[in-house]
C-alpha cells in the first residue's frame, strides 16, 4: 500500500511539473505580448522608454526646426499640501505615495531639453531655500541664459489606482514572466504654473496659463522597482506585494504628465512673443580693469523688445580707485544728481563719489546692431581705459517663435 501511495504521489508530482512546464511558456508569451501591445514606450530591460516620451512633446508649427539660445529652469520644491490648503488643513497627512518632488523638476528640464529647441537647458536654484533672484543671477552669470522659466509646482499626488492579482500570482509561480506583467496602475497629478523672466530685459512676462499635469500608467515590476533586494525578495514573496520605489514610479509618469502643460506653454509662446537673436563681440580693455559679466561674449542671447541687460564689474588697479565711468554718451558713475533748486531742469554736476575699489555696473541699453558701445573708465590717477561691445544680430531672424522657452513679448511688461 505504501509503495502504491508513493507511486501515485510521484505520478501526481510529475504531472504537476509537466503542467507547470507547459503553462510557463504560455504565461511568458502572454506577459511579453502584454508588454508589447498597447505600450509603445516599453522595453523589456528598462521598462518605460523615458527618452521616447520626452521627445514626443508636440511643437507648434512655427517652432519646428528652430534652435534657440540657452534657457534656465527654476522650480522650487512644491508647497506642502497643508500650506496650499490653508492653516486649517495642517493636520491632514499627505495623500497617496510619498516621493521626492525633485523628480518632477528633473523631468521638466529633461522634457524641455528633449525638444531640441534650445542650445541648452540648465536647472538653477536647486539648493534648499534658494530664492528666485539668486536663481536669476546664477542663470546669467554661470550659464549666460536668455530666459528663465519659473515653475510653481502644486502639491503632487501619486496614487495606486488599480492592482491586478490573479494573473500576476499565477505568473509568479513560474518565475520571471510575472515580473513583466503591467499589473499596477498608478496616477500622478499636480498643478503647474509657468512664468518667464526675460533675463536680457530685466522683467517678468505675463504668466501663461496651462492645464494641470496628469498621467496614468500601468507599470510592471521592473518599472516600479530599483532595489536588488526587492528582486531577491521575489524568490520567497509574491511580486505583486513587494515594495515599490516611489521615486521611480513618479519618474515613469512625470514625463507624460508634463506633456500637455508644456505643449500649451509653447503654444502660448508661439502666439504671443517675438524676438531677435544677438551675439556680442567684446574688445577687452588693455589694462584688465573691466569684466563683462553679461551678456557673455560670442554667445547667442535672445533679446525681447530691442534693449538688453548689460552687466560689468570694474576693478581699480592697485593703489588707485575708480573716479568715473561712462557708457556711450551717458555718465553711469558717479550717478548724476538732480539739482535741488526749484525750477532747475538740468542735472547738477555729480557729487564727489566715495572711493571705490570695485564697481558693479548694471544697465538696460537699447541695441543698435553693428554700432560699437564703449565703456570708458577713469581711475584716480586720471588714466583711462575702455571696453567695446558690438551687438551683432543673427542674419536670419529667429522667426515668429524664435525660442523654445525664451520668446519675447510684443510689448514690455
Descriptive report:
Helices cover 27% and strands 28% of the residues. Strand 8 and strand 9 form a beta hairpin. The protein has a six-stranded antiparallel β-sheet with strand order 13-11-21-20-15-16, with no helix packed on it. The protein folds into two domains: 11-87 and 94-272, no CATH class; 276-393, Immunoglobulin-like (Sandwich). The chain contains nine helices and 21 strands. The longest helix is centred in the first third of the chain and has 35 residues, at 2-36. The chain has 413 residues and is of the alpha+beta class. Helix 4 (102-114) crosses helix 9 (246-272). It starts with a helix and ends in a 20-residue tail after the last strand. The chain is elongated and about 85 Å long. The protein has helices at 2-36, 50-54, 81-85, 102-114, 132-141, 166-173, 221-224, 228-233, 246-272, and strands spanning 42-43, 47-48, 71-74, 121-124, 147-153, 157-163, 184-190, 192-198, 203-204, 213-219, 276-283, 290-294, 301-303, 307-315, 322-327, 330-333, 337-338, 347-348, 358-366, 372-379, 384-393.
Spatial order of the strands in the main sheet?
Answer: 13-11-21-20-15-16
DSSP helix fraction: 25-40%
Q: Number of helical runs?
A: 9
Counting helices, strands and paired strands, the structural category is alpha+beta
Percentage of β-strand residues? 25-35%
Main sheet summary = 6 strands, antiparallel
Q: How many domains comprise the coordinates?
A: 2
Any idea what the shape is?
A: elongated
In total, the number of strands is 21
Cα end-to-end separation? 96 Å
What's the order of the H and E elements? Answer: HEEHEHHEHEEHEEEEHHHEEEEEEEEEEE
What is the arithmetic mean of pLDDT?
76
Radius of gyration: 31 Å
Regions with little confidence, pLDDT below 50 for 5+ residues: 1-9, 31-46, 87-91, 339-346, 397-413
